[in-house]
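Progress report, Aim 2. The chain analyzed during this reporting quarter is listed below.
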Amino acid sequence: MKIIITNHQLNLIKENQGFKKLGQGNIGSVFSKNNKVYKLTDDEDEVVVSKGLLNSKMNFKHFPKIYSIINLGVNEYDEPKYGIIRKSYTPLSNVSEYQEIIDLVKKYQRDIMSYIPNQKNGLPTEVKENKLLMNTIHGIIDEFSTLNLPDYKLLDFHLHNLGVDDQGNIVIFDF
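Predicted structure tokens for the chain:
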């Protein structure tokens, strides 16, 4: 038997169980509760990457800790709907000590996004000269490559998808 989950049903569940809405995109919604983030998504690529993170034995510095991935059934268009539960991170834009990084990401996010998949495009000098940002970019590239997902490219590097963990590492949590 196929389980069909409507957006209305999902909204009722979230409202009645104390979830706080963090945001919504074209193919997903994000909520928080008890220091965890709950993402409801139709994006199967994100599920593949999240499964790679969940199943990896590595302790990632620049990717979120994934706790579980749940198949929620299908939406009203017969597309699979998933729930991804991950650790919560402080949004990068809320950490004043990272203002220089925030300004660089705002200014050069397109350059950084085009650089990450193949490292062939150059980066602006301002980005190259910021050691923390360059270490983060290369850390993301290196860690992503360990997932061995050759058909997937990491492109969604922008301010709203970056957070900071308890050790001060910049984490990309949407891909």
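Strands lie at 20-24, 28-33, 36-41, 66-74, 80-87, 90-91, 162-164, 170-172. The domain at 7-88 is CATH 3.30.200.20 (Phosphorylase Kinase; domain 1). These observations will guide the mutagenesis work planned for the next reporting period.
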